[in-house]
Amino acid sequence: MSKRIEIDDDIYRHIASHTQHIGESASAILRRLLGLDQQQDQPQSTAAVEPKVAEKAHGRTIFDSMTSADLAGQRSVVARFLYILEMLHKCHPEMFPKVLQISGRDRQYFSRSAAELEASGTSTNPKQIPNSEFYVVTNNNTTRKKSMLNQVALELGYDQSEAEKIRDFL
């Protein structure tokens, strides 16, 4: 049986900072930090450490929706970029339209159509974010893509340290 407890934000950040893999549960992290044995006779909770702020649609965040194996299956930077955006959309569909306001100095980064992105600059190479109605420019270097992921995570309610973890998935 699992119980819910409220903890202060600084304690949450400390627990989350000790996550060893995507989707690791708060109980597993605390058991490891406290030197306790894993429970043998009770099923492990699958609820991952997740921020209250970013908890949305199905009560899930990217940290418990995406596995490292799925991420590793994406063979290129662009494929990983699109996959991470797909998972963020899946976790936060109601808030995802906020990404439409993210743009660069001279170009729009997100839209609901490829044509709109193509019109906002040259060599944008727009791609549809899988399983969504959103498009993103993909003709940016990896550093810019990481910056875009960081901005998307912040728009969706993740704190800065979580946004950096999401950015570093790329």
Automatic annotation (TrEMBL):
InterPro entries named among the record's database cross-references: Arc_rbn_hlx_hlx, Ribbon_hlx_hlx, SeqA, SeqA_DNA-bd_C, SeqA_DNA-bd_C_sf, SeqA_N
UniProt-annotated location(s): Cytoplasm
Keyword Isomerase listed: no
One GO cellular component term: cytoplasm
Every Negative modulator of initiation of replication SeqA N-terminal domain range: 3-36
Superkingdom of this protein's organism: Bacteria
Main location: cytoplasm
Gene3D superfamilies reported in the protein's UniProt record: Met repressor-like, Replication modulator SeqA, C-terminal DNA-binding domain
GO biological process: negative regulation of DNA-templated DNA replication initiation; regulation of DNA-templated transcription
Protein's UniProt keywords contain Transferase: no
Keywords per UniProt: Cytoplasm, DNA replication inhibitor, DNA-binding
A GO MF term: DNA binding
Residue span, Replication modulator SeqA C-terminal DNA-binding domain: 65-168
Family note: Belongs to the SeqA family.
Function summary: Negative regulator of replication initiation, which contributes to regulation of DNA replication and ensures that replication initiation occurs exactly once per chromosome per cell cycle. Binds to pairs of hemimethylated GATC sequences in the oriC region, thus preventing assembly of replication proteins and re-initiation at newly replicated origins. Repression is relieved when the region becomes fully methylated.
Protein name, per record: Negative modulator of initiation of replication
Organism expressing this protein natively: Pseudidiomarina piscicola
Gene: seqA
